[in-house]
Specification:
The chain is α+β, with helices and mostly antiparallel strands and about 220 residues long. It is built from five helices and ten strands. A hairpin with a 2-residue loop joins strand 9 and strand 10. This is TATA-box binding protein.
C-alpha cells in the first residue's frame, strides 16, 4: 500500500472511534445507532436519515391513501404531489419523499426521511417509518444515513489500533474526486459505507448502512 493511500485511510478511519460497537450484538441496540452516536462525538451534526423500501400486493391507490393518512396523523407538514407516483411531506425539520412503482405482480414503495434536527437519531426516524408498515408489507428493508461537519482528527490513533479495537473487518478505500469513500463490516457483520468529502465550506464525514443512499 503506497504512502498516499495509507495516510488517506488513516485520516478517514480515524473518525471512526467505535469502541462501543465491538460489544454490540444483534440482540442489543441497533448497531447504526451506536455508530451514529460515536460519530457525533467527532463531528457536528448536519443531517441524518432513514429509507424504507417494501413491496405489497395492495392496490397502489389504496396504499398511497394509507401512507398519506399515517403521515398526516403522526407528522405535521405540508403535502406536495410531484406526480401520480411521487409525493412529499415537508416541515422545518423533516423532508419525506415517497415514491411508488409496479413490477410484476407487486407494487413497490420507497419512503425516504431526511432530518435536520439533532434531537432525532436514526433510531427515532426508523420508529416513525415503522408506523407506516402493515401486515401486507413484504420484504421490508431499512437504510441508515448520517452526515456531520468539521470532523476532528486524532493523530495518535493508528489504523491498526482502530481496526483491531473495533473489529472493523474487510475495510477498503476508494479515492474519489473530492475525497475518499470506503466500505467495511462492523463486528456483528453489518455492512457500512463511509466517506470523507471536502467542499468549499469544509469537510464532511458521512456514514451509511448498508450503503449511503444520499448523493454527496
Amino acid at each position: 500500500m503506497n504512502i498516499k493511500v495509507s495516510i488517506a485511510i488513516f485520516v478517514l478511519l480515524s473518525f471512526f472511534n467505535l469502541g462501543a460497537v465491538s460489544n454490540v450484538t444483534h440482540g442489543d441496540r441497533n448497531s447504526f445507532d451506536i455508530l451514529e452516536n460515536n460519530i457525533k462525538t467527532v463531528s457536528e451534526f448536519e443531517e441524518n436519515g432513514v429509507k424504507l423500501q417494501y413491496k405489497t400486493r395492495e392496490n397502489i391507490e389504496k396504499e398511497i391513501f394509507r401512507i398519506k393518512k399515517q403521515l398526516n396523523s403522526n407528522i405535521n407538514g405540508d403535502y406536495t404531489e410531484i406526480n401520480e407516483n411521487q409525493f412529499q411531506f415537508l416541515n422545518d425539520n423533516f423532508h419525506i419523499d415517497i415514491k411508488t412503482w409496479d413490477e410484476d405482480k407487486y407494487n413497490y414503495v420507497e419512503i425516504k426521511l431526511i432530518n435536520k434536527d439533532v434531537r432525532y437519531s436514526t433510531l427515532d426516524l426508523k420508529n416513525m417509518l415503522q408506523k407506516i408498515e402493515d401486515e401486507k408489507s413484504e420484504d421490508k428493508q431499512y437504510f441508515f444515513y448520517y452526515k456531520g461537519k468539521r470532523a476532528k482528527e486524532d493523530s495518535n490513533y493508528s489504523i491498526n489500533k482502530l481496526l483491531n479495537k473495533n473489529k472493523v473487518q474487510k475495510a477498503s478505500l476508494l479515492e474519489i474526486s473530492n475525497g475518499y469513500s470506503g466500505t467495511g463490516n462492523l463486528s456483528n457483520g453489518d455492512k457500512i459505507n463511509f466517506a470523507l468529502i471536502k467542499y468549499n465550506t469544509g469537510s464532511n464525514v458521512i456514514i451509511g448502512m448498508p450503503t449511503i443512499f444520499e448523493l454527496y
